[in-house]
Protein backbone atom coordinates (compact mmCIF):
# COMPACT_ATOMS: atom_id res chain seq x y z
CA UNK A 1 0.00 0.00 0.00
CA UNK A 2 0.99 3.61 -0.53
CA UNK A 3 0.54 4.91 3.01
CA UNK A 4 0.48 8.66 3.51
CA UNK A 5 2.03 9.97 6.75
CA UNK A 6 0.93 13.12 8.53
CA UNK A 7 3.35 14.21 11.24
CA UNK A 8 2.06 15.23 14.64
CA UNK A 9 3.25 18.79 15.56
CA UNK A 10 3.91 17.88 19.19
CA UNK A 11 4.31 14.31 20.41
CA UNK A 12 2.47 13.14 23.52
CA UNK A 13 4.21 12.62 26.82
CA UNK A 14 4.66 8.91 27.40
CA UNK A 15 3.22 7.42 30.61
CA UNK A 16 5.09 5.63 33.37
CA UNK A 17 5.67 2.07 32.14
CA UNK A 18 5.18 0.75 35.67
CA UNK A 19 1.67 2.18 35.89
CA UNK A 20 0.09 1.66 32.48
CA UNK A 21 -3.17 -0.10 33.31
CA UNK A 22 -5.20 -1.17 30.25
CA UNK A 23 -6.50 1.10 27.50
CA UNK A 24 -5.75 4.38 29.28
CA UNK A 25 -3.07 5.99 27.09
CA UNK A 26 -3.42 6.20 23.31
CA UNK A 27 -0.27 6.54 21.22
CA UNK A 28 0.61 9.45 18.93
CA UNK A 29 -0.81 8.09 15.68
CA UNK A 30 -3.58 6.00 14.16
CA UNK A 31 -4.03 4.22 10.84
CA UNK A 32 -7.05 5.15 8.72
CA UNK A 33 -8.35 3.87 5.38
CA UNK A 34 -11.68 4.41 3.63
CA UNK A 35 -13.93 2.18 1.53
CA UNK A 36 -16.68 3.19 -0.84
CA UNK A 37 -18.88 1.07 -3.07
CA UNK A 38 -17.55 2.90 -6.12
CA UNK A 39 -13.81 2.92 -5.39
CA UNK A 40 -13.13 0.12 -2.88
CA UNK A 41 -10.31 0.69 -0.38
CA UNK A 42 -8.43 3.98 -0.77
CA UNK A 43 -6.40 6.70 0.97
CA UNK A 44 -4.31 4.68 3.44
CA UNK A 45 -2.83 7.08 5.95
CA UNK A 46 -1.18 7.31 9.35
CA UNK A 47 -2.33 10.50 11.05
CA UNK A 48 -2.25 12.03 14.55
CA UNK A 49 -4.48 10.11 16.96
CA UNK A 50 -7.55 12.09 17.90
CA UNK A 51 -11.33 12.52 17.58
CA UNK A 52 -13.10 11.69 14.35
CA UNK A 53 -16.08 13.47 12.83
CA UNK A 54 -19.26 11.41 12.56
CA UNK A 55 -22.71 12.31 11.21
CA UNK A 56 -25.50 11.72 13.77
CA UNK A 57 -27.26 9.59 11.16
CA UNK A 58 -24.21 7.33 10.79
CA UNK A 59 -25.38 3.74 10.25
CA UNK A 60 -23.07 2.40 12.97
CA UNK A 61 -24.64 4.56 15.69
CA UNK A 62 -28.07 3.12 14.97
CA UNK A 63 -27.50 -0.42 13.69
CA UNK A 64 -24.09 -1.33 15.14
CA UNK A 65 -22.47 -2.33 11.87
CA UNK A 66 -18.92 -2.60 13.17
CA UNK A 67 -16.24 -5.18 13.93
CA UNK A 68 -12.90 -5.10 15.74
CA UNK A 69 -9.83 -7.12 16.64
CA UNK A 70 -7.40 -7.22 19.56
CA UNK A 71 -3.70 -8.07 19.35
CA UNK A 72 -0.35 -7.02 20.78
CA UNK A 73 3.21 -6.05 19.90
CA UNK A 74 5.92 -7.33 22.28
CA UNK A 75 9.44 -6.05 22.95
CA UNK A 76 12.00 -8.80 23.52
CA UNK A 77 14.93 -8.60 25.93
CA UNK A 78 17.15 -7.83 22.91
CA UNK A 79 14.96 -4.85 22.00
CA UNK A 80 13.24 -6.45 18.99
CA UNK A 81 9.53 -5.83 18.43
CA UNK A 82 7.34 -8.73 17.36
CA UNK A 83 3.70 -9.50 16.64
CA UNK A 84 1.93 -12.77 17.45
CA UNK A 85 0.03 -14.54 14.64
CA UNK A 86 -1.35 -11.32 13.07
CA UNK A 87 -2.67 -13.19 10.06
CA UNK A 88 -5.16 -15.01 12.30
CA UNK A 89 -6.63 -11.70 13.47
CA UNK A 90 -6.87 -10.62 9.84
CA UNK A 91 -8.72 -13.80 8.81
CA UNK A 92 -11.07 -13.57 11.78
CA UNK A 93 -11.97 -9.99 10.86
CA UNK A 94 -12.75 -11.12 7.32
CA UNK A 95 -15.17 -13.71 8.71
CA UNK A 96 -16.73 -11.19 11.10
CA UNK A 97 -17.18 -8.68 8.28
CA UNK A 98 -18.76 -11.25 5.99
CA UNK A 99 -21.42 -12.04 8.62
CA UNK A 100 -22.24 -8.35 9.10
CA UNK A 101 -22.23 -7.56 5.35
CA UNK A 102 -19.12 -5.43 5.57
CA UNK A 103 -16.31 -5.26 2.99
CA UNK A 104 -13.32 -7.58 3.25
CA UNK A 105 -10.03 -6.06 4.33
CA UNK A 106 -7.43 -8.44 2.80
CA UNK A 107 -4.98 -10.29 5.05
CA UNK A 108 -1.86 -8.81 3.46
CA UNK A 109 -3.21 -5.26 3.76
CA UNK A 110 -4.23 -5.88 7.38
CA UNK A 111 -0.79 -7.14 8.40
CA UNK A 112 0.96 -4.38 6.43
CA UNK A 113 -1.17 -1.71 8.10
CA UNK A 114 -0.47 -3.10 11.58
CA UNK A 115 3.26 -3.34 10.91
CA UNK A 116 3.38 0.18 9.45
CA UNK A 117 1.71 1.72 12.49
CA UNK A 118 3.81 -0.26 14.97
CA UNK A 119 6.97 0.89 13.15
CA UNK A 120 5.91 4.51 13.57
CA UNK A 121 5.01 3.89 17.22
CA UNK A 122 8.12 1.81 18.04
CA UNK A 123 9.02 4.08 20.95
CA UNK A 124 5.61 3.35 22.50
CA UNK A 125 6.25 -0.41 22.77
CA UNK A 126 7.14 -0.69 26.47
CA UNK A 127 10.13 -2.61 27.78
CA UNK A 128 9.08 -3.30 31.38
CA UNK A 129 8.51 -7.03 32.11
CA UNK A 130 5.14 -8.35 30.86
CA UNK A 131 4.12 -5.04 29.28
CA UNK A 132 3.14 -4.72 25.62
CA UNK A 133 1.56 -2.48 23.01
CA UNK A 134 -2.12 -3.34 22.61
CA UNK A 135 -3.33 -2.95 19.01
CA UNK A 136 -7.00 -2.38 18.17
CA UNK A 137 -7.93 -2.67 14.46
CA UNK A 138 -11.61 -1.92 13.83
CA UNK A 139 -14.05 -1.17 11.03
CA UNK A 140 -17.39 0.61 10.97
CA UNK A 141 -19.97 1.93 8.52
CA UNK A 142 -19.77 5.68 7.88
CA UNK A 143 -22.76 6.20 5.58
CA UNK A 144 -25.30 8.67 6.98
CA UNK A 145 -28.71 7.14 6.31
CA UNK A 146 -31.50 5.89 8.55
CA UNK A 147 -32.34 2.55 7.03
CA UNK A 148 -31.24 -1.01 7.76
CA UNK A 149 -29.07 -2.02 4.82
CA UNK A 150 -25.48 -2.71 3.82
CA UNK A 151 -23.82 0.69 3.94
CA UNK A 152 -22.03 2.17 0.93
CA UNK A 153 -19.09 3.58 2.92
CA UNK A 154 -16.83 2.23 5.67
CA UNK A 155 -13.72 3.20 7.57
CA UNK A 156 -10.93 0.84 8.74
CA UNK A 157 -8.79 2.15 11.58
CA UNK A 158 -6.09 1.03 14.01
CA UNK A 159 -5.31 2.62 17.35
CA UNK A 160 -2.76 1.51 19.94
CA UNK A 161 -2.07 1.85 23.64
CA UNK A 162 0.75 0.58 25.88
CA UNK A 163 -0.58 -1.81 28.52
CA UNK A 164 0.79 -3.22 31.73
CA UNK A 165 0.79 -6.76 33.07
CA UNK A 166 -2.82 -7.99 33.14
CA UNK A 167 -2.28 -9.48 36.59
CA UNK A 168 -0.64 -6.76 38.67
CA UNK A 169 -0.70 -9.00 41.76
CA UNK A 170 0.27 -12.22 39.99
CA UNK A 171 -1.57 -15.02 38.22
CA UNK A 172 -4.24 -15.88 40.80
CA UNK A 173 -7.44 -17.96 40.40
CA UNK A 174 -10.81 -16.17 40.28
CA UNK A 175 -14.38 -17.05 41.27
CA UNK A 176 -16.83 -17.67 38.41
CA UNK A 177 -20.65 -17.55 38.40
CA UNK A 178 -22.47 -19.77 35.89
CA UNK A 179 -25.14 -17.63 34.20
CA UNK A 180 -28.28 -19.67 33.47
CA UNK A 181 -30.70 -16.91 32.39
CA UNK A 182 -28.87 -14.45 30.14
CA UNK A 183 -27.08 -15.43 26.91
CA UNK A 184 -23.70 -13.97 25.90
CA UNK A 185 -23.71 -14.27 22.14
CA UNK A 186 -26.11 -16.27 20.02
CA UNK A 187 -27.40 -19.57 18.76
CA UNK A 188 -26.05 -21.15 15.57
CA UNK A 189 -26.58 -18.88 12.61
CA UNK A 190 -26.18 -15.73 14.71
CA UNK A 191 -23.14 -13.55 15.35
CA UNK A 192 -21.49 -15.62 18.09
CA UNK A 193 -18.36 -16.31 16.04
CA UNK A 194 -17.87 -12.65 15.11
CA UNK A 195 -15.94 -10.03 17.04
CA UNK A 196 -18.51 -7.24 17.01
CA UNK A 197 -19.36 -4.75 19.72
CA UNK A 198 -22.95 -5.85 20.16
CA UNK A 199 -21.80 -9.19 21.54
CA UNK A 200 -19.81 -7.44 24.24
CA UNK A 201 -22.51 -4.91 25.12
CA UNK A 202 -24.81 -7.84 25.82
CA UNK A 203 -22.34 -9.32 28.30
CA UNK A 204 -22.23 -6.36 30.68
CA UNK A 205 -25.46 -7.16 32.55
CA UNK A 206 -24.22 -10.63 33.40
CA UNK A 207 -20.91 -9.19 34.58
CA UNK A 208 -22.70 -6.70 36.85
CA UNK A 209 -24.86 -9.50 38.26
CA UNK A 210 -21.81 -11.64 39.00
CA UNK A 211 -19.92 -8.82 40.71
CA UNK A 212 -22.88 -8.10 43.00
CA UNK A 213 -22.68 -11.72 44.18
CA UNK A 214 -18.93 -11.49 44.76
CA UNK A 215 -17.77 -13.21 41.56
CA UNK A 216 -15.16 -11.95 39.12
CA UNK A 217 -16.63 -13.29 35.90
CA UNK A 218 -19.50 -15.14 34.24
CA UNK A 219 -19.44 -18.61 32.70
CA UNK A 220 -21.94 -18.51 29.84
CA UNK A 221 -24.11 -21.42 28.73
CA UNK A 222 -25.38 -22.06 25.20
CA UNK A 223 -28.30 -19.95 24.01
CA UNK A 224 -30.51 -22.84 22.89
CA UNK A 225 -30.59 -25.22 25.85
CA UNK A 226 -28.90 -23.19 28.68
CA UNK A 227 -27.05 -26.45 29.27
CA UNK A 228 -23.61 -26.50 27.65
CA UNK A 229 -20.67 -24.34 28.79
CA UNK A 230 -19.33 -22.00 26.12
CA UNK A 231 -17.24 -19.00 27.23
CA UNK A 232 -16.11 -17.21 30.40
CA UNK A 233 -16.55 -13.45 30.37
CA UNK A 234 -15.31 -12.57 26.90
CA UNK A 235 -12.74 -15.39 26.83
CA UNK A 236 -12.68 -18.96 25.62
CA UNK A 237 -12.52 -21.50 28.45
CA UNK A 238 -10.89 -24.91 28.94
CA UNK A 239 -11.37 -27.66 31.51
CA UNK A 240 -8.92 -30.39 32.51
CA UNK A 241 -11.02 -33.40 33.55
CA UNK A 242 -9.42 -36.74 34.38
CA UNK A 243 -6.29 -35.78 32.45
CA UNK A 244 -8.07 -34.66 29.26
CA UNK A 245 -8.88 -31.15 28.02
CA UNK A 246 -12.41 -30.06 27.15
CA UNK A 247 -13.39 -26.85 25.38
CA UNK A 248 -16.45 -25.70 23.45
CA UNK A 249 -16.35 -26.43 19.70
CA UNK A 250 -16.17 -23.69 17.08
CA UNK A 251 -19.62 -24.13 15.56
CA UNK A 252 -20.78 -20.55 15.11
CA UNK A 253 -21.62 -19.61 18.71
CA UNK A 254 -18.10 -19.30 20.16
CA UNK A 255 -15.38 -16.84 19.14
CA UNK A 256 -12.45 -18.63 17.45
CA UNK A 257 -9.78 -17.19 19.72
CA UNK A 258 -6.17 -16.88 18.60
CA UNK A 259 -5.00 -17.74 22.12
CA UNK A 260 -7.42 -20.69 22.22
CA UNK A 261 -5.99 -22.07 18.97
CA UNK A 262 -2.43 -21.58 20.23
CA UNK A 263 -3.19 -23.38 23.51
CA UNK A 264 -4.68 -26.34 21.64
CA UNK A 265 -1.54 -26.56 19.49
CA UNK A 266 0.64 -26.62 22.59
CA UNK A 267 -1.54 -29.12 24.46
CA UNK A 268 -1.64 -31.61 21.59
CA UNK A 269 2.08 -31.16 21.06
CA UNK A 270 2.56 -32.17 24.71
CA UNK A 271 0.45 -35.30 24.26
CA UNK A 272 -2.83 -34.18 25.81
CA UNK A 273 -6.13 -35.26 24.33
CA UNK A 274 -8.12 -32.11 23.53
CA UNK A 275 -11.87 -32.63 23.17
CA UNK A 276 -13.52 -29.82 21.23
CA UNK A 277 -16.99 -30.88 22.23
CA UNK A 278 -20.05 -29.80 24.14
CA UNK A 279 -19.71 -30.18 27.91
CA UNK A 280 -22.86 -29.87 30.01
CA UNK A 281 -22.77 -27.76 33.15
CA UNK A 282 -24.20 -30.75 35.05
CA UNK A 283 -21.27 -32.93 34.00
CA UNK A 284 -18.88 -30.11 34.85
CA UNK A 285 -20.23 -29.69 38.37
CA UNK A 286 -20.28 -33.48 38.85
CA UNK A 287 -16.59 -33.59 37.90
CA UNK A 288 -15.98 -30.83 40.41
CA UNK A 289 -17.55 -32.86 43.18
CA UNK A 290 -16.03 -36.25 42.37
CA UNK A 291 -12.50 -34.84 42.10
CA UNK A 292 -11.92 -35.37 38.37
CA UNK A 293 -12.10 -31.62 37.58
CA UNK A 294 -8.43 -30.80 37.88
CA UNK A 295 -7.99 -27.36 36.31
CA UNK A 296 -10.10 -24.63 34.69
CA UNK A 297 -8.77 -21.60 32.80
CA UNK A 298 -9.97 -18.92 30.42
CA UNK A 299 -7.87 -17.94 27.40
CA UNK A 300 -7.67 -14.61 25.58
CA UNK A 301 -5.37 -11.92 24.18
CA UNK A 302 -5.47 -9.54 27.14
CA UNK A 303 -4.87 -12.01 29.98
CA UNK A 304 -3.46 -14.97 27.99
CA UNK A 305 -4.73 -17.27 30.77
CA UNK A 306 -7.18 -16.64 33.62
CA UNK A 307 -7.18 -19.52 36.14
CA UNK A 308 -10.49 -20.39 37.82
CA UNK A 309 -10.59 -21.39 41.49
CA UNK A 310 -14.34 -21.62 42.12
CA UNK A 311 -17.50 -22.29 40.11
CA UNK A 312 -21.02 -21.54 41.28
CA UNK A 313 -24.08 -22.89 39.43
CA UNK A 314 -27.33 -21.87 41.11
CA UNK A 315 -26.77 -22.93 44.74
CA UNK A 316 -24.06 -25.48 43.94
CA UNK A 317 -20.41 -24.46 44.48
CA UNK A 318 -17.21 -26.36 43.66
CA UNK A 319 -13.61 -25.41 44.37
CA UNK A 320 -11.04 -26.12 41.64
CA UNK A 321 -7.55 -27.37 42.59
CA UNK A 322 -7.80 -26.04 46.16
CA UNK A 323 -8.14 -22.54 44.69
CA UNK A 324 -4.57 -22.67 43.43
CA UNK A 325 -3.23 -22.23 39.91
CA UNK A 326 -2.80 -25.62 38.24
CA UNK A 327 0.51 -26.98 37.02
CA UNK A 328 -0.70 -27.20 33.42
CA UNK A 329 -2.25 -23.72 33.54
CA UNK A 330 1.05 -22.26 34.70
CA UNK A 331 3.01 -24.20 32.05
CA UNK A 332 0.71 -22.94 29.27
CA UNK A 333 1.01 -19.35 30.49
CA UNK A 334 4.80 -19.54 30.79
CA UNK A 335 5.21 -21.16 27.38
CA UNK A 336 2.93 -18.88 25.39
CA UNK A 337 4.18 -15.67 27.00
CA UNK A 338 7.71 -16.99 26.60
CA UNK A 339 7.15 -17.24 22.85
CA UNK A 340 5.41 -13.87 22.65
CA UNK A 341 8.19 -11.97 24.46
CA UNK A 342 10.96 -13.99 22.83
CA UNK A 343 12.12 -15.68 26.03
CA UNK A 344 11.89 -19.14 24.50
CA UNK A 345 12.31 -20.31 20.86
CA UNK A 346 9.28 -20.07 18.58
CA UNK A 347 9.27 -23.44 16.81
CA UNK A 348 5.77 -22.82 15.45
CA UNK A 349 6.58 -19.72 13.42
CA UNK A 350 3.94 -17.68 15.22
CA UNK A 351 5.92 -14.49 15.79
CA UNK A 352 6.51 -11.79 13.18
CA UNK A 353 9.35 -9.34 13.75
CA UNK A 354 8.59 -5.71 12.98
CA UNK A 355 11.84 -4.39 11.52
Care to describe what's here?
This protein has 355 residues and is α+β, with helices and mostly antiparallel strands. Helix content is 23%, strand content 30%. It has eight helices and 18 strands. The protein has helices spanning 59-63, 86-99, 107-120, 197-201, 204-212, 258-269, 281-290, 327-340, and strands at 4-5, 29-36, 40-48, 66-68, 71-75, 81-84, 132-141, 153-163, 174-179, 217-221, 229-232, 235-241, 244-247, 274-276, 293-300, 304-313, 316-319, 351-353. Strands 1, 2, 3, 4, 5, 6, 7, 8 and 18 form a nine-stranded mixed beta sheet that branches. A six-stranded mixed barrel has the order 9-10-11-12-15-16, surrounded by four helices. Strand 10 and strand 11 (229-232) form a beta hairpin. Helix 2 (86-99) packs across helix 3 (107-120). The longest helix has 14 residues, at 86-99. It starts with a strand and ends with a strand. 40% of the residues are buried.
